[in-house]
Amino acid sequence: MDPAMPQQLPQSFRDFCAANNINEGIYRSDQNLPRYVRFKAPPSADIIAAVCEQLGAQLEPVRWLPGFFALPQNVKIAGSEAYKKGQIFGIDASSGAAVEALDVRPGDNVLDLCAAPGAKLCLISDHVSPSGTATGVDISPPRLAATRTLLRKYGAAHNCRLFLADGTTFSERPPTRHVLRQFSKQTGLEQGSEAKGRGIHLEGVDVSINEEGARRSCEVDEDRGFGFGEICTESAVEAQGQSRKSDGRIAIPNPKSGTDSLQTARECEISRSLDTAAVQLGKTPSPVQSLEGTALEERQPANVEACGTEIGPTEGSESLDISEKRSEREGESRKKERRRRRPIGGSETKAQLFFFGRGITPRVLETAEGSGRAKLYDKVLVDAECTHDGSLKHIRKYDWWGWDTFERRVMDPDRLAALTDLQGRLLSNGFRLLKPGGSLVYSTCSFTRAQNEDVVSTFLDAHPDADVVAIPQAATWPCSPGTLQHTLRFTPDVSKTGGLFIAKIMRKQEFRS
Ligand SMILES: C[S@@+](CC[C@H](N)C(=O)[O-])C[C@H]1O[C@@H](n2cnc3c(N)ncnc32)[C@H](O)[C@@H]1O
Hints:
GO terms for molecular function: RNA binding; RNA methyltransferase activity. This protein is α+β, with helices and mostly antiparallel strands. The chain is 29% helix and 17% strand. Helix 4 crosses helix 5 and helix 14 packs across helix 15 (453-462). The longest helix has 20 residues, at 413-432. It binds S-adenosylmethionine. The site of S-adenosylmethionine (SAM) has 20 residues, from helix 5 and strand 6.
């Protein structure tokens, strides 16, 4: 057998490769690829040594990608202290490269249009800190729930928000940075405080402190329909049926378990501030406006998925009732949503009111029509749904699912056409939400031209204000050029990473059609 060929590739997959001009040789090292981890904060030599000891393996720095380390593929990281403490997380180096290509800067507002399960969003959250924001969107409730868990675990939730929405129609503006700073200042929840990882949801919230000082009243932002409630005073503690223990801790009754959980006043204050309801009105939010101030077409309203506490499907926690009327209806629709197999061409999302709040009665807050120019995102990542053929590990799952399923899902021309159509619409909508002068990265973990260069070329034909640009950092990356100028491909044989296609697209600063 040709040593360049991977052994025992299933015939269906070989047929797929042949049909898409994919050289099977690129998979030859796929079975022995390293796994990659990233340190949340730049590690000292002592920390690296300690983590190596915990993992029982050497961490090899990835020379071309700062903060990333390679490990032998079979090393399990989940049991280690470093992983449990959120010090390291698993993310393929090619995924890291996609985020690096975006060149995210502190203070940027970044949109991640296909965010789940969230590894790239965690990285983005780190890069935009301390003053920027990251907005994640995904159409899959369970995957979004996993994303929320990940964000919390890695202390990335403080500047992130998540929407359950169709990325082809998502239309929410970036949050107001001014408010983010104001909220942090007033609550004392600065970067690195214990609030990190709790999931603050801050978009468009106008926070004010009244005469009583400790009391925080929060009003909804006119554009957004979200808000934080107030609470934290002694009277509010009593009003909530809570009591202070002699050591100063506050007993918070949990009606479901019948037990009290004890929190220090500080913890209580923080959780109150963070866990108060965020509200998405059950009506269409004001659409994003173009820079010229004209409303862009009406889009589907998004559902709020995650912020301070549980909304929507949860991991290891119960979702809270929203209102007597709505909870039943939504419970049913969520069940239906879980049962339903998501079509490959995307799906419609219905407006739903998600809600949460521990012991807090949520208020539905009124919005006013937004006015003036919409703020758009500085950077957008469209890490699109694809056939995942860049990773044999993923493709091998069809050993269990059955290769007839592969043929039906991945090789059926109608489904492929629907998929590439979805990719094009995700790219177009991401670009619509990008500000002039901003950059967008389109990536897939497929090697087919149809899902990569062809999608980008079709997009460029329809968007004269878009340019594919070179990625300067890539000069030192172990990748190969795509067939469209400036596009890149990470292939397992060359990069020793999972497969990834990356195109960086700039929106021209000044453009007259
Ligand atoms: C390749 S995965 C994204 C991986 C993610 N960026 C990460 O780094 O963890 C593609 C995601 O697109 C989501 N998706 C599929 N169709 C979508 C749509 N119409 N709108 C938004 N997300 C969609 C899928 O649920 C899936 O989570």
